Amino acid sequence: MAMHTRSVLDPFGWILQMITGFLLLGFVLFHLYITHLSSHEALSYEQVVLRLSDPTIRAFYWIFLVAVAFHAFNGLRAILLDTDFGGKNARAVNAITILLFLAATAYGGLLLIAF
Amino acid sequence: MVGVKGWFRIRGVSLQSLAFSLQRLTGIILLIYLVAHLSYLTSIRLGEEVYTAFISLTVRPETLPLDSLLFLVIFYHAFNGLRVVLNEFGILYEYRRALLYILAALAVICWLWSTYVMYIYVMG
Amino acid sequence: MEEVIFNIRRFNGINSYWQRFKVPVKRGMTLLEGLYYIKENLDGSLAFRASCRMGICGSCAVRVNGKPMLACETQILNLKAKKLDIEPLDNMRVLKDLIVDFDDFFKKHEAVKPYLIRDDVFYSKPVELLQTPKELKEYYNFTLCIKCGSCYSMCPAASTRGDYLGPATITAAYRFCADSRDKGKNERLEAVSGTNGVWRCHFAAECSEVCPKKIEPAKAVQKMRKSAAGYMIKKIFR
């Protein structure tokens, strides 16, 4: 039956959701600290440009983006598959969420490279 | 079948169910916030004036409560998520209620501290 | 003698409506006795399922003030409420009043092959299958399921996905997978590893909270999830 498909995305998605969750615990708390809790001027244009001028920091931000985009869109995938509509159109749900993930990482990557 | 209402039950449910409902709700809120945040980052490319105007619109005393709420949402989702991972591996399963209280308390403490710090910065 | 109001959600096939009954209650009287009182003295058309009246058949599960419980094992005065909102179980189609359709529930059980599977059954030469007490302890708790449907009623995944197997079914699958006498683990893992299986559980754990037999279905589902992940990933490399 079409609704009872076995997809290898499920176990990998589950494991990676946990791994990205752990990574994000560190990344997000660090990011919040740097932008809101470390100094008064952290969000000024000069400070942002300064942080983003270092290529290591840009690489770190891109890895952060990949983790957060995966976690978010895999979460969305799980929520959509929890519904009957999502269950009947599982292949579409998988395709759309994967595309959203790739689009987010590509767009963010291009932004960081061009900066 | 109840439909999406079934994800957010309040009557006759235990704390475990409420924790799940909040995890799902905060997840959806953060997904929407993520898309907005990534779109906002485009403004950095549009030059200093656009960026500074945007920042002065979104980081000021009037929006502080919203920022604070965002922090609560983030801390709750993060610490509760940690609890879910532990439970899904059967770690501390017998103490799941205690774990719930402890991690929720941690989230609230971090939230209170960060609200205080942001308040100091924004109010000067 | 106290009086407690039973506010029951009725359904006659067309309309759903609430009806109140005043039930005189003595200490020790169970919810099921209250329902029988209503049926015998106040309204003979009230429909509900019940059989053993001792918590072993699983027929009489209903929701009281939102929480599922066995009517025969719940004492009215223990609920400490003057008014009880009694409804049928959630996530299942209501047939009449407090009776719901369990067909799907049982079909899902059948799909996970809830029986011992062995490759060496010779009926002409029966062999005793030995098991140590330690091996029994591994799965004994999960054998106590009476298929009452309380866990399925509270599951958030079951409320939006009609084909979700549900905690009781996955627990039944685990009960046999964890049985040292069983050889059918892979067949059951196939059955529970679809998108309608273990992957729909997100640990709301309400099933473990409402189970009248304290079986901990949430625990069984997590164990099956781990096994399913290992099984599916190993399949790629075969």
Automatic annotation (TrEMBL), chain A:
Annotated protein name in UniProt: Succinate dehydrogenase, cytochrome b556 subunit
Matches recorded under Gene3D superfamilies: Fumarate reductase/succinate dehydrogenase, transmembrane subunit
Protein keywords: Heme, Iron, Membrane, Metal-binding, Transmembrane, Transmembrane helix
Subcellular locations according to the entry: Membrane
GO biological process, alphabetically ordered: tricarboxylic acid cycle
GO CC terms, sorted: membrane
Pfam families attached to this UniProt entry: Sdh_cyt
Molecular-function GO term, any one: metal ion binding
Residue spans crossing the bilayer: 12-34, 59-80, 92-114
Alphabetized InterPro entries for the sequence: SQR/QFR_C/D, Succ_DH_cytb556, SuccDH_FuR_B_TM-su
Domain of life: Archaea
Automatic annotation (TrEMBL), chain B:
Membrane-crossing segments per the record: 21-41, 68-86, 98-122
Main location: membrane
Keyword DNA damage set for record: no
GO MF terms held by the record: metal ion binding
Signal sequence extent: none
Domain of life according to the entry: Archaea
Entry keyword Lipid metabolism: no
One Gene Ontology term, aspect cellular component: membrane
InterPro entries linked: SdhC_prok, SQR/QFR_C/D, SuccDH_FuR_B_TM-su
Keywords, in A-Z order: Heme, Iron, Membrane, Metal-binding, Transmembrane, Transmembrane helix
Cellular localisation: Membrane
PANTHER family, A to Z: SUCCINATE DEHYDROGENASE 2 MEMBRANE SUBUNIT SDHC (PTHR41910), SUCCINATE DEHYDROGENASE HYDROPHOBIC MEMBRANE ANCHOR SUBUNIT (PTHR41910:SF1)
Name of the protein in question: Succinate dehydrogenase
The species this protein was found in: Geoglobus ahangari
Automatic annotation (TrEMBL), chain C:
GO molecular function: 2 iron, 2 sulfur cluster binding; 3 iron, 4 sulfur cluster binding; 4 iron, 4 sulfur cluster binding; electron transfer activity; metal ion binding; succinate dehydrogenase (quinone) activity
GO biological process, one term: tricarboxylic acid cycle
Keyword terms, alphabetized: 2Fe-2S, 3Fe-4S, 4Fe-4S, Iron, Iron-sulfur, Metal-binding, Oxidoreductase, Tricarboxylic acid cycle
Reported cofactor(s): [4Fe-4S] cluster; [3Fe-4S] cluster; [2Fe-2S] cluster
Gene3D superfamilies documented for this protein: 3.10.20.30, Alpha-helical ferredoxin (1.10.1060.10)
Entry EC no(s): 1.3.5.1
InterPro entries listed in its UniProt record: 2Fe-2S_ferredoxin-like_sf, 2Fe-2S_ferredoxin-type, 2Fe2S_fd_BS, 4Fe4S_Fe-S-bd, 4Fe4S_Fe_S_CS, Beta-grasp_dom_sf, Helical_ferredxn, SDH/FRD_Iron-Sulfur
Every 2Fe-2S ferredoxin-type domain range: 2-92
UniProt keyword Iron-sulfur present: yes
Every 4Fe-4S ferredoxin-type domain range: 136-164
Protein name listed in UniProt: succinate dehydrogenase
Provenance organism: Geoglobus ahangari
